[in-house]
From TrEMBL:
Record GO terms (molecular function): ATP binding; ATP hydrolysis activity; L-isoleucine transmembrane transporter activity; L-phenylalanine transmembrane transporter activity; L-valine transmembrane transporter activity
Protein name (database record): ABC transporter ATP-binding protein
SUPFAM superfamilies: P-loop containing nucleoside triphosphate hydrolases
Protein function: Involved in beta-(1-->2)glucan export. Transmembrane domains (TMD) form a pore in the inner membrane and the ATP-binding domain (NBD) is responsible for energy generation.
CDD domains the UniProt entry points to: ABC_Mj1267_LivG_branched (cd03219)
């Protein structure tokens, strides 16, 4: 699907996202210390850890909201350590946030259309979209992908919390992303909404890799193939989902002593 977004050549081998020795200081406080992580193209990974482990700061460094104090970040082989956020977006990096960042007064369709328009070459055009507008067709496809077709004309303010989370995923998918950072997408969801989220994430195109931060391990471990555990701003342990789930140190650190 060509919606006018910038195109960059795909990488057949190597890393989609590579962090080397990433440290982030806030004054004397080290929120991240010497973090090294490599994620392959198309890989789905969970970053887990208790509150204060450095997970969101890690995302902020990757997206450029808070650049690292030291270390390097490469995206599909390109050093983006000092790139502003919009340049990272142009290269196919997307992110969702813990707190919804939507236009509550607009419809679902208009929210998705604006997201597609914002990463397209014609984003500054003053012409109104027609019925055959490519971005409008792209918007409809994304709405269907996140199971919101039935509420496409509703104002975002009228949506259930889970539907707003689904909409955020649609916005992150705008413009043919190559990699997405999901920041606690299951927060506040009911069991039914969690099942819907799992279905959406597992149905994403195989070439789109992602990292998910999630406190709900039942969700996180079902939608990824690898896990990085963080503790006190450092990488504590890495492994496959079943290895992390069964690890006694992880259980004690993340779930509390006495977890069976």
């Amino acid at each position: 699907m060509d919606n006018g977004a910038p195109r960059f050549s795909s990488v057949a081998a190597g890393a989609a996202l590579e962090l080397r020795g990433v440290t982030r200081l806030f004054g004397a406080l080290a929120a991240l210390t010497d973090v090294t992580i490599t994620v392959r193209p198309g890989e789905r990974r969970a970053v887990l850890g208790s509150n204060g482990a450095g997970k969101t700061t890690l995302f902020n460094c990757v997206t450029g909201d808070f650049p690292p104090s030291s270390g390097t970040i490469r995206f599909f082989g390109e050093d983006i350590t000092h790139f502003p956020p919009y340049e990272r977006i142009r290269r196919g990096l997307r992110r969702t946030y813990q707190i919804s960042a939507l236009f509550p007064g607009l419809s679902v369709r208009d929210n998705v259309y604006l997201a597609c328009r914002g990463v397209s070459r014609g984003r500054f055009s003053v012409l109104r979209p027609g019925t055959n507008d490519a971005l409008m067709h792209a918007s409809e496809a994304l709405i269907q992908a996140v199971h919101l077709t039935a509420v496409r004309e509703q104002r975002v303010a009228e949506l259930a919390h889970g539907q707003q989370r689904q909409l955020e995923i649609a916005l992150a998918l705008a413009g043919a992303p190559r990699f997405i950072l999901f920041d606690e997408p299951a927060a506040g969801l009911s069991p039914t909404e969690r099942r819907e989220l799992i279905e959406i994430l597992t149905s994403l195109p195989a070439h789109i890799g992602y990292i998910i931060i999630e406190h709900d391990m039942d969700v996180a471990l079902r939608v990824v193939e690898s896990v990085t555990m963080m503790h006190n701003g450092r990488v504590f342990k890495e492994g496959l989902p079943h290895e992390i789930e069964a690890d006694p140190e992880v259980q004690e650190l993340y779930l509390g002593a006495g977890h069976a």
